[in-house]
Structures are given as C-alpha cells and as structure tokens.
Specification:
The chain is of the alpha+beta class. The chain contains 16 helices and 31 strands.
C-alpha cells in the first residue's frame, strides 16, 4: 500500500513538473515571438586580468533583475569551482538580459570573458557572436598588455568598442591620466570614455544605455533557412552534448529537423533555451539570438561547426573556428592503470567543454598508457588538471611541460616515413637522431610589456637574458612605456611572468602573440637516475643554455627526490656526455652499534653483510619520484 502511494506521488510530482515546464516554455515562447532583431544587442566584456569584468557582469545582472541587489553570491557568472577558488574567469559565460529603455524592451546577450592570456581562445570565440565590446580599463592601473591585445582583436573583427574606466571610486584612481593613455595608444577620443565603479554600481546604468545606443543590432537574415554558428559546447549527463549557438539566419523550433554541416545525418532539436544565466526553456528562437541548443545524447557537434536546416546541408560552407596554436604540451597518465577508462572519459568530456586543448594517445615505459595534451600555457594546464579532479574525480600524473619544435630531416626513407621533410615535435622523445636532422626550428613569440619607466633597465636585462631581441618601444604616458621583444617561447612559458612581476614590484604586465618558428641550435638532454633513463624528464634545450639547464635540473631533482635506502645518482646527459651530476646519499645505519666488545672479526662480518645487502638492493631498487616532480622540476 505504501509503495502504491509513493508511486502515485511520484507520478503526480512529475506531472506537475512537466506542466510547469510546458507553461514556462509557452510563456517564454509568447514573450520571444515578437522579438525585433533591431532590439537585440550582442556584446562582450573584455579587459586585462583583475580589471573587474565579472563584478561588472554582476551589476548588469542586478540592473536587469536577474540577480537581487545585496545578494551574497558575487561573480555569478564564474560558475566553476576552480574560478571561485582562484578568483579568475576561465570560461566565457553567456547571460541573456531584458532591459527597457525609452519604453522599448531590448534583448541583451552579455558574454563575460576571461582576462588571462592562457584563455584568450575563449575571447576569440566569444567575439564572433558579438557586434561590440565593453573594453574595461582599471582607472588605477591604466592600460595593460592584455588591453592592447583585446583592442587589437576587436578591431580585427570590426566591433564597436565602448572604452570604460572602472574602479573610479578608489583613492588612487586617475581617470584623466588613463584617458590620455587611451588617446595616445588607441587614438580614442576622451569624450567617448565612460567612467564607472562596478563594485558600487556607479555609472552602470549609463553604460548599459550606451551599449544600446552605440552597438548596432546583428546583421542577420530572418526570411531564410536556419543556420547557426557554434561557439561553445559542453556535456550533460542526461541530455548529451549541449551547444551555445549564435543564429545567423532564419528561425529554429523545438522538434525541427536540422543537420551538422560536418555530418549528413539528420538531427532533431530537442532542447532550446536562453541562458539567464540559468536555463529558461523556449520553443522558438530567431536570427541574432545566442541560445542553447541540444539534439539529444547522439546529436553532438563541435566548436566552429554549423547547425543548419536540412535544406542547407550541402549549400553553405562551414565556418571554421580560429586555429588554436598550442604553446605547451604535457603528458597526462592515470595514477593507476586501472583508472585508465575513468580518466579517458573525463578527458573527453573536459576537452568537449575546453576546445583549446588537443588530445593524442601516448605511452610511457614508466607510467603506462596515457595522453599527450596541448595547452595554451601553464595556467591552462594547471586549471585543466584541477578541473579533472574536481569535476570528474579523476586523479592524473603530469609529465614535465614542453613547447613544440620543428625539425627538417634528410634521407628518402625518413621523408617517406613522415610524408614530409619537416616534422612537428611535441615530445622530446620524438626528436630524430642528430645525424638525420638538417635544421632545428624553435617557436618564438612577440611579447608586449607595459612597465613604469624606472624598470626599463631591469625588464630589458631580463628579456635579453632570455635570448630576446628588442623591437622599437613607445611611450604610453610620462610614467609608463610599452616595450616589445621577440622571445623564444621556451624561455617565457614557465616562470617569465612571475620573474617580471618580481623585478617590477608587480607593476609590469605582459602579453604575447605567436611569431612563428625560427631556426635555432637545439639538443636533447636526458636525465639518468642510477643509470636508468627517465623518459618523462627528457627535455629539448638550446645549446647556449645547456650546462646551466643541466646543473639546474640535477640540483632540483636532488631536492625533490626523497632519500632512499641506497645511494641515488642523478645525471644530466647529452649524447653520452655527462654535463652535471648530483648524488643523494643513502640512509645510514650503524649495524655495529650493538657490539660492546669481542673480536674485530664480528664487526667486519656485520659490515660485510650490510655491504652485500645494499649491493643487492641497488640491483633491484625502484626509485620513487614524487608526482609533483614532473611539473615543478622546470620551475626556477
């Protein structure tokens, strides 16, 4: 009887929930049916790190009624646990807002983007769905390196830029000086610059109205077949792959038959919703909107693909996503091979949500089966592994990160094997024999540093020490200058930013863009532990820094590898030549301590037994290298 009552309650509860969802969809559909494309505004917030993007997004959510003023939860759009813990934005998040201006209701699609250079790919994808950006600049710090990068990105995409000064309420704020910087560097009229305090809400309403007045509506075609560009994807446990789509033409409805441009199989739109930022189901969406689309567990797509009406499947060209250039490669292996399937599923789901990573299968004699994954930087790598653990409970071992190289090879057999005379090296173990290599190529970047003038000498010395080549510099204002250098990627990817902040008391900012591969003199350096090669610690090093890197690696490993029962010899080797050696002494035990007298032969006997035991132990010793060694060993 109790079971029957519970079953009836279960049916009633699900019936009520179903009707609530249907009613919400009808209400949402009715309210969206008369959306005028001229009343749609798509825009992003772009800025340097910690200039207040997520705080401004909070105020915009409050102003449009999505979030209650005084709500304890801050930075609502930072939804990942890693974002809340680190205080940074990792994923670009969309929120659809309603705002009434001059008795007209506008539909605003806001995208809050990351500020760190490692997540610039999120910004690049976000602006493809926008017609304008709010370029936020800290009124205390002024123009920073990433500000230059996002301004250049907005200009390349022909977006309307609304320059905005934030944190004008702070005592150190100097809005007039920062306006002069904007005019000097970007030729922006100071009269067009807005001043706000995102924390206190000053000037936010005027900024929102400026978005409506300055940013044009999307240029789309309503009376045409449906077509949408995918700007983000993620995985849902019950609904499969969900996509964030910018509709470029036509309309889409729940139940409509569609196709992926990259696939000929028909799909059915099963889920359609606005993100506010929580999902609000709708029945129909029109061109110009940014909506969430789902085609069921087997109807997933990919970032950069197009979702089109079945009539257009063979008629339109696919809009490819901007090419991602990976700056760092690292091996990821399960802590135990029994967890290989769990880690594999976790990496696939996370790679779906983070389209900036590249995943290839790899293997290691020491760590077993794993993957070689490309990242945009060390912070990107760190956040990826943290998300694996937090979101998917998958624990992984990381190998030392390395940058990609190119080599030009000789020999008909090798060229036939690789199908080209130039090959990309993402793992030091892939480097061919030096006798078969014609030329080595190393990735370089064009670095932009904005620093106070008193630190120019220290910054220049740092860059030249890292094999940098100076480019012409320019003054931002009387106190700040912008320096540019051509730098090897391998010299800046690990600890350059930390060192730069240290020597400039935290005032300098750094950003970089790819400058291609340059010819360079490179060699592979191996690490031997007790005569055994440790593949995971092999690195590719420039010839000029060979001895320095060898000593540094050997000393670092000596600090990080715990003492064993036997002596451990650490050697840095290039082509059979030992460049550096460190020795970790074995634990010592006085086996003769219990002797209190007697013949000396007893003492010799005990010492001989100990020596034989240690010799046997050395022959079968398994040196345990701590898990963090592989990434920490490259940090200076």
């Amino acid at each position: 009887m109790v079971k029957n009552i519970n079953f009836i309650k279960y049916l009633y509860y699900n019936s009520v929930k179903y009707h609530q969802r249907v009613l919400m969809r009808r209400m949402s559909s009715d309210s969206r049916k008369y959306v005028d494309v001229e009343k749609i505004r798509n825009f992003s917030i772009v800025a340097h790190v910690d200039h207040g993007k997520s705080t401004l997004a909070d105020r915009l959510l409050e102003l449009t009624g999505v979030k209650k003023p005084g709500d304890e939860q801050s930075q609502v759009l930072d939804q990942l646990q890693v974002e809340k813990e680190r205080g940074i934005t990792v994923k670009a998040v969309t929120a659809t807002l309603d705002y009434t201006y001059n008795n007209e209701t506008y539909l605003l699609n806001l995208i809050d983007t990351p500020g760190h250079v490692d997540f610039s790919n999120e910004v690049v994808r976000s602006v493809t769905a926008c017609q304008g950006v709010i370029m936020l600049v800290d009124a205390n710090e002024g123009i920073q390196a990433q500000t230059v990068a996002v301004h250049s990105l907005a200009k390349r995409n022909n977006l309307v830029i609304i320059p905005t000064l934030n944190k004008v309420d702070l005592p150190r704020a100097n809005p007039d000086k920062v306006k002069e910087q904007l005019q000097s560097v970007f030729k922006i009229d100071p009269n067009t610059v807005l001043s706000i305090s995102a924390k206190k809400g000053w000037g936010v309403r005027e900024l929102l109205e400026a978005v409506i007045m300055r940013i044009p509506p999307p240029k789309v075609v309503l009376d045409d077949h449906f077509s949408a560009h995918i700007i983000d994807t993620w995985h849902d446990k019950y609904r499969g792959v969900l996509c964030l789509a910018y509709i470029t033409s036509g309309t889409v409805k729940v139940g409509q038959a569609v196709k992926w441009q990259s696939d000929s199989k028909l799909q059915t739109v099963k889920h359609l919703a606005l993100l506010r930022p929580t999902e609000e189901p709708i029945d129909e969406a029109i061109a110009g909107q940014v909506v969430m689309v789902g085609c069921g567990p087997k109807g997933g797509g990919s970032v950069g693909d197009q979702l089109v009406a079945k009539e257009l499947a063979n008629a339109s060209e696919r809009l490819s996503a901007p090419a991602v250039k990976h700056m760092v490669y690292a091996g990821i292996f399960p802590a135990d091979q029994s967890q290989h399937i769990l880690l594999s599923d976790a990496i696939k789901k996370l790679a779906l949500n983070d389209s900036a990573v590249s995943v290839t299968i790899d293997s290691s004699p020491a760590l077993g089966q794993g993957w070689r994954i490309g990242f945009l930087g060390l912070l990107h790598l760190d956040v990826f592994t943290q998300r694996l653990l937090q979101e998917h409970k998958a624990e992984a071992i990381l190998t030392a990160p390395s940058v990609p190289y190119k080599v030009k090879i000789k020999g008909a057999k090798l060229i036939k094997h690789y199908k080209t005379d130039e090959i990309l090296i993402t793992n030091p173990l892939q480097l061919p024999d030096p006798n078969n290599v014609v030329e080595y190529f190393e990735p370089f970047v064009k670095g932009t540093i904005i620093t106070p003038v008193e630190y120019i000498g220290a910054v220049t010395s740092l860059c030249i020490d890292r094999r940098g080549t100076p480019l012409p510099s320019s003054a931002v204002d009387d106190t700040m200058t912008m320096l540019q250098f051509i730098l090897p990627l391998s010299e800046i990817v690990v600890d350059f930013h930390d060192t730069l902040k240290s020597i400039t008391s935290g005032f300098a900012s750094f950003d970089y863009e790819d400058d291609g591969f340059h010819s360079s003199s490179l060699v592979r350096m191996d690490i031997l532990i007790n005569g055994m090669l440790v593949d995971e610690l092999s690195t590719i090093v420039h010839a000029s820094r060979l001895e320095y890197n060898a000593r540094r690696l050997a000393e670092k490993l000596k600090e990080m590898i715990p003492r064993q029962m036997v002596q451990v010899a650490i050697q840095a080797v290039v082509g059979g030549k030992v460049l550096a050696r460190e020795t970790i002494k074995a634990y010592r035990k006085d086996v003769t301590a219990k002797l209190y007298g007697g013949d000396v032969t007893r003492r010799k006997k005990l010492l001989k037994q100990q020596a034989e035991g240690k010799k046997k132990m050395r022959s079968v010793a398994n040196i345990k290298i701590p898990r963090d060694t592989f990434i920490d060993v490259l940090k200076k």
